[in-house]
Amino acid sequence: MTIERVPSPHFPQVGFERRCMAFAIDFLGAWLVSSTLGSNNTGIQILQILVFIIVWLILRVIIPYNNHGQSLGRWAFDIQVLEAGAKRIPDLPSLLKREAIVGLGALMISIAINNIIRNPTAILLVLPLAIECSAALSDTQMRQTMHDRYGKTMIVSSQRGYSLDIKFKRLVETFRRNVRQ
User: Fold this and answer.
1) What is the C-alpha to C-alpha distance for residues 71 and 137, in angstroms, rounded to an integer?
2) 81/75 Cα distance (integer angstroms)
3) Distance between CA atoms of residues 119 and 110, nearest Å
4) pTM for this structure?
5) Which spans in 61-154 are helix H?
6) At how many degrees (to 10) do helices 46-57 and 16-35 cross?
7) Choosing a second label site near 25 at 20 to 30 A (CA), which of 56, 58, 67, 92?
8) Residue 151 CB coordination number (10 Å)
9) Dihedral of alpha carbons 156, 81, 79, 32, sign
10) 71-104: per-residue pLDDT in tens?
11) What are phi and psi of 79, to 5 degrees?
């Protein structure tokens, strides 16, 4: 008995750093909007959580569904989300499943940031998302995280975007050249 390899379409892989930076831009957008509704009370703010969830769904589900699989952060770093093994944008339920998992981790990070001064152990809320995303480090072939596997999606490089990482590298190189002179 032999095992046949099924040829899969080759997609340009995205580095973990670019994925993290794109996530950070989307997270900061949702966190900044929701943190304006916070109060000085300790604990979890229900209104703040609801606003974070709504903004997260808009930024990470509705916009990518209508924008070639790119959220604001993914567009800034030339990344897009596709169905695993296909060259098309995931359907709305797949994006919703995927972003519900990642959104829960992002919400926990948001709660940790808002409560870190009053309760330093809130930093432990970062661990679930870190563990969930660490699966991409061990997957050398497709670099899928657990939420990618559950939503049957993958992150690939795109020709469409702003190339913020490349522009930043050029800016730093120009700055270094000018300092040397």
Assistant:
1) 22
2) 11
3) 14
4) 0.85
5) 63-66, 72-76, 92-115, 127-133, 135-138, 146-151
6) 130
7) 92
8) 24
9) negative
10) 999 999 999 999 987 889 999 999 999 999 999 9
11) -125, 150
